[in-house]
């Protein structure tokens, strides 16, 4: 009897303890409880990593809270796999340390997590101004990249919402080998003349959406590298910057196809390019870039509104000049309105070795607003096959 009672008591204790464990699972992990200072001076790297590890070890939903304050952080990795869903609620401002020698290629790196939410209105400030003079990437192809603000690699099922990224030292956000991520209501800003401060760069990823966002930087607002499938860009305001870009493609060996891109309801203001596809000559890889739809786009004083460049040369010297082996196919431009500044509205220069096919220009109304003498022919078509439909102004060459 006594034994049975004690077994019941133990069972009961176990029940209470495991109940408590389940209750704790939807836990809150305030970085301040892990030693973060938030005074803008003290390094908080350790505190953030410890809070992440604690949250990562529990099942259910773990919320890491970053309260108001300025948190200085060196390179920090938030690594999974985690037991449950990770939520990072950022109210304060995160400041990147300016000691360049401490960095590899990232400031904050989210890796191997399935189920991640970052939100809260907080700011990620890369403090890039002191690093930008060390950027060598305009001079050489083999430059050592400066650190990127936020890197997501091998991340699945994530929502990144209502945060800002400011003055990254290099790309602001880099998505790599990831799936099912939505970037919603993101604000990205860096000066117009800051080098390689691309807003969001996506490579080797599937089902990535960028929606309802405002991006103004010194390079591409959004750039899409090789190996991407099914991307959506919707309601993005871009400018200043270099526009929305696919490429450069064909730079390295083993690059995979880019298939399925839907860019709609975007507004490009004062950008050097609008919608651009660029591939390098003498590509060591042979790949496809197919099934892109660009529709309902406003161009507001964009220099090159619609451009395909298969002779792209990113640095001062591109020695070999063999035609690009990237095949561009089924690219639709529909319902594009606004103003442009260069003499050429459609600059479609494709590869002799792999001519563009299925390029469609439909319902386009672009008005020249530049200072140069307006070209008689605002359309350049080289090795390009396709069609134009509806009312297309200026006159198209396909
Ligand atoms: C992501 O979520 C989907 C749908 O909820 C699920 O089917 C998939 O397994 C998740 N991804 C991973 C890597 O678990
Ligand atoms: C493409 O992406 C959208 C949005 O992420 C998603 O709803 C859709 O299911 C995806 N399609 C495929 C074939 O994965
Ligand atoms: C492109 O995206 C828009 C907005 O999400 C959507 O309305 C439209 O149906 C999509 N088109 C295609 C072909 O996926
Ligand atoms: C595009 O954005 C610019 C700059 O914010 C704004 O002035 C313009 O009204 C916008 N155009 C449309 C049609 O939304
Ligand atoms: C404009 O130039 C293209 C070649 O880039 C040519 O095919 C087209 O006929 C020209 N259009 C006019 C109206 O001259």
From TrEMBL:
<dbReference type="GO" id="GO:0071555">
    <property type="term" value="P:cell wall organization"/>
</dbReference>
<comment type="function">
    <text>May function in depolymerizing pectin during pollen development, germination, and tube growth. Acts as an exo-polygalacturonase.</text>
</comment>
<keyword id="KW-0732">Signal</keyword>
<dbReference type="InterPro" id="IPR006626">
    <property type="entry name" value="PbH1"/>
</dbReference>
<keyword id="KW-0961">Cell wall biogenesis/degradation</keyword>
<dbReference type="InterPro" id="IPR011050">
    <property type="entry name" value="Pectin_lyase_fold/virulence"/>
</dbReference>
<dbReference type="GO" id="GO:0047911">
    <property type="term" value="F:galacturan 1,4-alpha-galacturonidase activity"/>
</dbReference>
<dbReference type="GO" id="GO:0004650">
    <property type="term" value="F:polygalacturonase activity"/>
</dbReference>
<dbReference type="Pfam" id="PF00295">
    <property type="entry name" value="Glyco_hydro_28"/>
</dbReference>
<dbReference type="GO" id="GO:0005975">
    <property type="term" value="P:carbohydrate metabolic process"/>
</dbReference>
<keyword id="KW-0326">Glycosidase</keyword>
<dbReference type="InterPro" id="IPR012334">
    <property type="entry name" value="Pectin_lyas_fold"/>
</dbReference>
<feature type="signal peptide">
    <location>
        <begin position="1"/>
        <end position="25"/>
    </location>
</feature>
<feature type="active site">
    <location>
        <position position="242"/>
    </location>
</feature>
<protein>
    <recommendedName>
        <fullName>Exopolygalacturonase</fullName>
        <ecNumber>3.2.1.67</ecNumber>
    </recommendedName>
</protein>
<keyword id="KW-0134">Cell wall</keyword>
<dbReference type="InterPro" id="IPR000743">
    <property type="entry name" value="Glyco_hydro_28"/>
</dbReference>
<keyword id="KW-0378">Hydrolase</keyword>
<comment type="similarity">
    <text>Belongs to the glycosyl hydrolase 28 family.</text>
</comment>
<keyword id="KW-0964">Secreted</keyword>
């Amino acid at each position: 009897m006594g034994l049975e009672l004690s077994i019941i008591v133990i069972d009961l204790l176990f029940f209470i303890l495991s109940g408590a464990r389940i209750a704790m699972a939807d836990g809150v992990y305030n970085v301040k409880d892990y030693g973060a200072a938030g005074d803008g001076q003290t390094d908080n790297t350790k505190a953030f990593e410890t809070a992440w590890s604690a949250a990562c070890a529990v099942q259910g939903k773990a919320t890491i809270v970053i309260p108001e304050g300025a948190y200085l952080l060196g390179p920090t990795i938030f690594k999974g796999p985690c037991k449950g869903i990770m939520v990072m609620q950022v109210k304060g401002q995160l400041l990147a340390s300016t000691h360049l020698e401490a960095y590899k290629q990232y400031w904050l790196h989210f890796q191997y997590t399935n189920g991640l939410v970052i939100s809260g209105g907080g700011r990620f400030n890369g403090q890039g101004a002191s690093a930008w003079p060390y950027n060598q990437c305009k001079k050489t192809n083999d430059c050592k990249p400066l650190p990127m603000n936020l890197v997501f690699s091998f991340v699945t099922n994530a929502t990144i919402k209502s945060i800002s990224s400011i003055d990254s030292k290099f790309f602001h956000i880099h998505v790599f080998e990831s799936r099912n991520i939505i970037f919603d209501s993101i604000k990205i800003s860096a000066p117009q003349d800051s080098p390689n401060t691309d807003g969001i760069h996506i490579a080797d990823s599937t089902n990535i959406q960028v929606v309802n966002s405002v991006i103004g930087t010194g390079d591409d607002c959004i750039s899409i590298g090789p190996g991407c499938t099914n991307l959506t860009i919707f309601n993005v305001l871009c400018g200043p910057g270099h526009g929305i870009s696919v490429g450069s493609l064909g730079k390295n060996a083993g690059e995979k196809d880019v298939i399925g891109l839907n860019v709609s309801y975007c507004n490009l203001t004062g950008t050097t390019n609008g919608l651009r596809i660029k591939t390098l000559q003498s590509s060591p890889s042979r790949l496809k870039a197919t099934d892109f739809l660009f529709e309902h786009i406003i161009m507001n004083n964009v220099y090159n509104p619609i451009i395909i460049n298969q002779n792209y040369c990113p640095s001062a010297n591109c020695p070999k000049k063999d035609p690009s082996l990237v095949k561009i196919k089924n690219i639709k431009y529909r319902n594009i309105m606004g103003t442009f500044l260069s003499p050429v509205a459609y600059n479609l220069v494709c590869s002799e070795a792999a001519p563009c096919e299925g390029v469609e220009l439909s319902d386009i109304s672009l008005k020249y607003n530049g200072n140069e003498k307006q070209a008689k022919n605002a359309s350049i078509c080289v090795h390009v096959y396709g069609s134009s439909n509806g009312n297309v102004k200026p006159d198209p060459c396909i």
